Amino acid sequence: MTASGARGHGSAGWRLTGIGLLALGVAAALYLAGRLHQPDYTFSMSGGDPFPPKSLLATIALALAGVQVLLAAWIYRKLPLAGDPPRPVPIAHRVTGFAVFAVTVPVAVHCLIAYGVQLTSARVAIHSIAGCFFYGAFAAKVVLVHSRRLPGWALPVAGGTLAIVLGVLWYTSALWYYDGYQLPAF
């Protein structure tokens, strides 16, 4: 390895550190805003019970995240028998990613205004913290997508992390609602 190669590797490490700090900063800002905000339990964007529309949007987001993962696996040629992805696959991946973000925003806005960040039970604490982390990880992924000269593993790790966190959010909210306000036991 040459000195310039070592310097390039170090700068990639610094860029990844900066992106990680951005993610932590966004998550921390949302956490603090949610903890300092006085919850308005009467707030409803749908005019009625907020759980059905929020659960539906969360389920749509989770399904779209599943499509995202499949499209990313195709783009990275990790799907058996799929071959090279045609030109529309990366475009569909980007459009689906935007759709995931778009359907999560109304849910997050309602959660932040109506409840803030609460730590009243394990389910609620995990959900609140995962929600903050989701948008931090999303900010990091957007920066990663537009960054050059980073390790090839960084973007798939960021995308996979987003999908997993979205699964945690869905499990601690929509599934909880669909299962009669309780989490199913394994």
Short description:
With 186 residues, this protein is mainly alpha-helical.
How many separate domains make up the residues?
Answer: 1
Globally, the shape reads: globular
The string of secondary-structure elements, in order, is: HHHHHH
- Radius of gyration, rounded? 19 Å
Structural class: mainly alpha
Note the total helix count: 6
Q: How many strands appear in the DSSP assignment? A: 0
Largest sheet: none
Helix share, percent: over 70%
pLDDT averaged residue by residue:
91
Percent of residues in beta strands: under 5%
Low-confidence stretches: 1-7
- Distance between the terminal alpha carbons, to the nearest Å? 49 Å
Q: Can you tell me about this structure?
A:
With 186 residues, the protein is mostly helical. It has one domain (3-178). Helices cover 72% and strands 0% of the residues. The protein has six helices and no strands. The chain has helices spanning 3-36, 51-75, 88-114, 122-145, 154-171, 174-178.
